[in-house]
Amino acid sequence: EGSSGSPSSTSPTTSPSLPSADIATAVWPFVDSDTRYTDPVEAARGFATELVGFKAPPGGPFQQGDSRSGEVEVRTKISTPTTVFVRLMSDDTWWVLGSATADIVVDEPTTDEIVTSPLSLSGRARAYEGTVNVEVRQDGSNEPIGEGFVTGSGGADLGPFEGEVTFSEPTQTHGSLVF
To answer: What is the pTM assigned to this prediction?
Structure first.
């Protein structure tokens, strides 16, 4: 979650293009949990509150993409919208594939990239005092296995960032990167 309150969750998604629709690569809910959603807006809100840490974010309506996917905007009172990408999977429940915000654009790592520690980061961002918090998480846990920050812009325009974050050996195959 960036200091501006706008998250960008990657792996599987860092841009508005949707990755392959495999439950194992979905960001939310955790595959091994009993949490499932029959409503895409509730899936987006669950992601925003339970995984990212928003406090009661207002959510926009579901915007249909293809017949089984779409997006929902969520926001804090001070942030630009975060677009949450949702998909109706083969179990007939809604899953979050990732999210994006205009405040954080991630160039590296790319979608679905297999990563190692230290993880190289690059992109563009705008946040309070330019500071964007970064967490590496593994599936099934909100606790980071690595964390740090990158510095973008504190002004109106996106500023470039580069950095790296070290993380401990994961015990799960999949995970996410939360800015």
So the answer is: 0.81
* % helix, strand, coil for the chain, step of 5: 10, 40, 50
Tell me the pLDDT of the chain (179 aa) as tens digits: 333 344 444 433 333 444 445 787 799 999 889 999 999 999 999 999 999 988 888 778 999 999 999 999 998 777 688 999 999 999 999 999 999 999 999 999 998 889 999 999 999 999 989 999 999 999 999 999 999 999 999 999 999 999 999 999 999 988 999 99
- What sign does the dihedral 137-107-41-132 (CA atoms) show? positive
